[in-house]
């Protein structure tokens, strides 16, 4: 079985991103070289655990790594202070030491929460990401952003804490519900929109294969996405500049997630899909992007089954969305830095966006 090996070029914080099928059964052997000791603490959720925990624990046994584990409740609700406290307590109860390797086995929720717990436990212990959703394999497991949501907004408390290794086993995506695959696909198409028009074109031709489970197409999409993310993060680890391009669609998307209470109504990836459409519509409204590219993006997302309009079941309020956006981490001196685009594959950052243009775009989108 072949493994694609990418490297996150961050000097002493650098690490490999391994992509392949069946990696789960080699977890212990693949982790051992980056471990400081012979103990691991595995965190998963109550939907991933029944599928994959036993295989990971068996591979740790085979590699002579002793282990404890815990399961959190699945879903975005778990990314909060209460679950963080409970998770850190369970690590302390298990007498995790500074040399214990923390393992995040799950989607972005498990990865973000566990990574943050690892960042603060005993002032920082090592962790490994084993992403089990498409979203986590192409995005959240790579780059070291960890954290939780608070009442004031999305991911507002957290730490940059890079994993020691990422193991992306493509075959685990076979058990992922279609809605979750589609949500992850939004972050895949994001890389095409940011600076890779050729990838966008490839996705227009092959996106349905990625969604429907073609292993070669999935592996290619994960590898290209991780390569893009690793390149951007290596250039700007702590988001002083170009890393913010990875936030395309997120200023609007996070506002939708906050407004809907971080539940099942809008998943993160779905919010990003809608947010990217809003970013492109705003760009076109400001005369920066061709309308044809907005249509191209909407048509592609719509054809694959992602939401491209806001639900009519809910009353959306422009002012409330703008208030959520005001808490964005890209706000500087009271002004939001937006990720806009001159077209597909031509995204850029700018604080120069008239408030009226944002209001008009949001009003139009809510009414659409
Ligand atoms: N740190 C980052 O850079 C970064 C990047 C993107 C997103 N995120 C965060 O990631 C989170 C979203 O992650 P997500 O989309 O993976 O959601 P998730 O972690 O909630 O997983 C989605 C659902 O799928 C289930 N699941 C996971 N893997 C499965 C599998 N293989 N088979 C069957 N079911 C499975 C989970 O139990 C969960 O119910 C958000 O909180 C978002 O903010 C972080
Ligand atoms: O890694 C990044 O940088 C990203 O922005 C990736 C995003 O897909 C991800 O959702 C991230 O968690 C958003 O970061 P935030 O700083 O806006 O909370
Ligand atoms: Zn995201």
UniProtKB/TrEMBL annotation:
Instruction: State the EC number(s).
Output: 4.2.3.4
The residues the record assigns to binding NAD(+) are 108-112, 132-133, 145, 154
In this protein, which residues make up the domain named 3-dehydroquinate synthase C-terminal?
184-331
List the pathway annotation: Metabolic intermediate biosynthesis; chorismate biosynthesis; chorismate from D-erythrose 4-phosphate and phosphoenolpyruvate: step 2/7
Q: Where in the cell is it found?
A: Cytoplasm
Predominant cellular place of this UniProt entry's protein: cytoplasm
Gene3D superfamilies from the UniProt entry? 3.40.50.1970, Dehydroquinate synthase-like - alpha domain (1.20.1090.10)
Question: Which reactions is this enzyme annotated as catalysing?
Answer: 7-phospho-2-dehydro-3-deoxy-D-arabino-heptonate = 3-dehydroquinate + phosphate
Give the required cofactors.
Answer: Co(2+); Zn(2+); NAD(+)
Q: Where is the 3-dehydroquinate synthase N-terminal domain?
A: 71-181
UniProt keywords (A-Z) are:
Amino-acid biosynthesis, Aromatic amino acid biosynthesis, Cobalt, Cytoplasm, Lyase, Metal-binding, NAD, Nucleotide-binding, Zinc
Main EC class the enzyme belongs to? lyase
Which residues are involved in binding Zn(2+)?
187, 250, 268
GO MF annotation terms? 3-dehydroquinate synthase activity
Q: Cofactor: bound how, per the entry note? A: Binds 1 divalent metal cation per subunit. Can use either Co(2+) or Zn(2+).
Q: Tell me the Pfam families matching this sequence.
A: DHQ_synthase (PF01761), DHQS_C (PF24621)
The entry sums up its family as follows: Belongs to the sugar phosphate cyclases superfamily. Dehydroquinate synthase family.
Q: Could you tell me what this protein does?
A: Catalyzes the conversion of 3-deoxy-D-arabino-heptulosonate 7-phosphate (DAHP) to dehydroquinate (DHQ).
This chain belongs to the protein called 3-dehydroquinate synthase
């Amino acid at each position: 079985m072949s493994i694609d090996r990418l490297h996150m070029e961050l000097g002493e914080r650098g690490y490999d991103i391994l992509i392949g099928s069946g990696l789960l059964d080699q977890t212990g052997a693949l982790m051992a070289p980056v471990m400081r000791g012979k103990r691991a603490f595995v965190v998963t959720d109550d939907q991933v655990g029944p599928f994959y925990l036993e295989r990971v624990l068996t591979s740790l046994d085979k590699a002579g790594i002793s282990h404890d584990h815990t399961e959190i409740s699945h879903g975005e609700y778990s990314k909060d202070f209460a679950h963080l406290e409970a998770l850190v307590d369970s690590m302390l109860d298990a007498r995790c030491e500074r040399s214990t390797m923390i393992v995040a086995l799950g989607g972005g929720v498990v990865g973000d929460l566990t990574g943050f717990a690892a960042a603060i436990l005993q002032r920082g212990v090592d962790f490994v990401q084993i992403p089990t959703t498409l979203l986590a394999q192409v995005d959240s497991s790579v780059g070291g952003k960890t954290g939780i949501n608070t009442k004031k907004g999305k991911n507002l408390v957290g730490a940059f804490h890079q994993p020691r290794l990422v193991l992306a086993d493509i075959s685990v995506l076979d058990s992922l519900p279609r809605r979750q695959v589609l949500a992850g696909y939004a972050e895949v198409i994001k890389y095409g929109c940011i600076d890779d028009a050729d990838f966008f074109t490839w996705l227009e031709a092959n996106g349905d294969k990625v969604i429907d489970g073609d292993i070669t197409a999935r592996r290619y999409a994960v590898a290209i996405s991780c390569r893009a993310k690793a390149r951007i993060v290596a250039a700007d680890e702590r988001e002083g500049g170009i890393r913010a391009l990875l936030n395309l669609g997120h200023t609007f998307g996070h506002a939708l997630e906050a407004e809907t209470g971080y539940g099942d109504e809008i998943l993160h990836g779905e919010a990003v899909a809608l947010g990217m459409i809003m970013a492109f519509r705003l760009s076109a409204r400001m005369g920066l992007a061709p309308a044809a590219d907005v249509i191209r993006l909407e048509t592609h997302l719509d054809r694959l089954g992602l939401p491209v309009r806001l639900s009519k079941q809910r009353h959306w309020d422009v002012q409330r969305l703008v208030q959520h956006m005001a808490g964005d981490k890209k706000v500087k001196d009271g002004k939001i830095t937006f990720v806009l685009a001159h077209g597909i594959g031509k995204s850029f950052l700018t604080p120069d966006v008239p408030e009226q243009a944002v209001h008009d775009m949001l009003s139009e989108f809510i009414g659409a």
